[in-house]
Hints:
By secondary structure, the protein is an alpha+beta fold. It has one helix spanning 4-13, and strands spanning 53-56, 71-75, 81-86. A 3-stranded mixed sheet has the order 1-2-3, with no helix packed on it. It starts with a helix and ends with a strand.
Amino acid sequence: MRYILPFLILSACTAAVPSLPEIQDDTCGAGEHADLIGQDATALERVLILGMVRVTRPGDIVTMDFWPTRINFQIDANEKIVAITCG
C-alpha cells in the first residue's frame, strides 16, 4: 500500500496533453485530390482549390490549430506530395 501512494501523487502531477479531434469525414475535400499523392509538388500549381490550404515540408514550423475545412499537403524532401489531410 505504501508503494502505491507515491505513484498516485506523481500521476496527479502530470499534465494532460490535449488531443486533436478525430477526423470522421473528409471535411476538406482531400479525397478529391488523392491522385496528387506521389506527384511532384509543382502539380499543386495546376489545381484550383478554393478555401484554406496549407503546404508543409520537412523542417517547417507549423501551428497546432485545427481547421476541419483546411486541406494540408505534406511534401517530402524529394519535393513529392506524400500525404493530403484535413485539419
